[in-house]
Amino acid sequence: MEATLVILKPSAIGRAIAGEIISRFEKKGLIIAGMKMMQLNDEILDEHYAHLKDRPFFPRIKASMMATPVVAMCVKGIDAVQVVRAMTGVTNGRKAAPGTIRGDYSMSGQENIVHASDSVENAQIELARFFKPEEMFEYRPTSFNYLYASDEA
Ligand code: ADP
């Protein structure tokens, strides 16, 4: 089963919609394998957003990500990376499709509620960046047999 990193950004915490967003992942049938609140800093954001470091808005994004603590989640499921990205929607909340998290909750290209890993490879790198191994749990929810057919799981 795949694992992916979700971050509930300050735009989710500040607007007090973290519970609603977590609930969407739970209702979809994704398994929450790790979850913690943390205050991000320059060091972790320089790594996490290294692909944006030459963009003019890089300092602004970092400040936005440090505005409040965030909630980091390790979310598991079959094809979890692609499923969570689809639930998240495109980067700009104004362009994200209704029904997606960004499409339903964001009007901004920056204040877009959630981060979600964009590939299986990056998910592994990002989970290792945000979680210690002992902070991610292996368990089978009692609903498991209703989440997947026997030949899927
Ligand atoms: P995504 O989060 O959809 O994978 P990126 O990795 O390209 O997108 O960007 C990381 C984050 O940086 C975005 O989620 C958004 O908060 C911010 N960002 C990206 N592009 C812009 C932009 N043009 N203007 C403002 N913020 C941006």
Would you kindly provide a written description of the structure presented here, covering whatever features stand out?
The protein is globular, with a radius of gyration of 15 Å. It is built from eight helices and four strands. The chain is an alpha+beta fold and 153 residues long. The mean pLDDT is 98. It has a four-stranded antiparallel sheet with strand order 2-3-1-4. It has one domain (2-147): Nucleoside diphosphate kinase-like domain (Alpha-Beta Plaits). Adenosine-5'-diphosphate binds next to loops. Adenosine-5'-diphosphate is lined by residues 52, 57, 61, 91, 109-110, 112, 115, 118.
Write the layout of secondary structure elements.
Elements (H helix, E strand, L loop, with lengths): L1 E7 L1 H5 L3 H11 L2 E8 L3 H7 L9 H8 L4 E8 L2 H9 L12 H5 L8 E3 L3 H11 L13 H4 L6
Antiparallel strand pairs: 1-3, 1-4, 2-3
The structure holds adenosine-5'-diphosphate (ADP).
The site of adenosine-5'-diphosphate has 9 residues, from loops.
Biggest sheet layout: 4 strands, antiparallel
CATH fold-type name = Alpha-Beta Plaits
**Biggest sheet, spatial arrangement of strands:** 2-3-1-4
Helix content, binned percent: 25-40%
Q: Which class do the helix and strand fractions yield?
A: alpha+beta
Outline = globular
CATH homologous superfamily, by name? Nucleoside diphosphate kinase-like domain
CATH class: Alpha Beta
